[in-house]
Amino acid sequence: MAIDFKVKTYEPYNDVTITLKSIKVLDACAVGKFKENVTDGTSYVADPKWTDQTDRFNAGYEAVKANQIVTDTEEVLANHNDIILLPQELTATPLADSPKIQVVYNMTNAGGAVVEVTQVVNLADVNNDGTEDYLSDGTNDIKVWEIGKRYTYVISIALNKVYFAPYVSNWSDVTVPGP
Asked: In this structure, is the dihedral angle defined by the CA atoms of residues 101, 106, 110 and 111, taken in order, positive or negative?
C-alpha cells in the first residue's frame, strides 16, 4: 500500500504566509510476515495477508521535506515521496502507539514574525481522547491500510489547526521511465 499527500491552506490568508517544512508518517509497523495463502485446485485462489506486524518506526517516514509556500490550491509539493508501507491496522495497544501523521510548518505574519508549528494526528484516535475514531474517506472510516490501495491525505492548514481529508484508490501500475 502507498500513501501520498496533497497540501493547501484552509482558506486564502492575506497577512500570513504558510511554509510547509515536512510531513512524516510516525509509528507505522516496519516488520511483518507475508502469507500468500494460495489454494491449489482447478483454479488458484489467492488471499494474501500480512500478519505479526511489529517494530513501530517512531522516527517516522518522511514524505515531504520542503520549504515551500502553501497556497489555497491543492497540490502535490516539490520534494515529495510516496511512502510504501506494510498494510496494517490503524489501531495499536496502547492506542497512543497507532500510526500518526506529523505536519511541520512555519506561519509568517506581515510584520515578519515567524512561528513554527508541529501538528500530529493519530489516525486511530483523531481527537486524542483515548477511544478509537478514524479519519474517513467520505464513505467509510479508514481502519486498515489495505493491500493494493493508495491512500491520499489532503492536508488543509488553517491558522489554528490542520485538517485531513483522505481518499482511497486502487493501486494502479505505472510506467517509470528509465535513465
From this structure: positive
Contact 134, 143 (CB under 8 A): yes
Low-confidence stretches of the chain (pLDDT beneath 70):
37-47, 51, 172-179
| Closest to 73 in 3D by CA, of 30, 133, 12 | 12
Q: For residue range 2-20, list pLDDT tens digits in order.
A: 899 999 999 999 999 999 9
The sign of the torsion formed by the CA atoms of 148, 54, 128, 162 equals: negative
CB under 8 Å to 116, separation ≥6 — which residues? 21, 104, 105, 106
Cell of 114: 515567524
Centroid of chain to Cα 99: 9
Task: Give the CA-trace dihedral at 64, 116, 158, 59, to 10 degrees.
Answer: 40
Q: How far apart are CA 106 and CA 117, in angstroms?
A: 6
Global confidence as pTM: 0.85
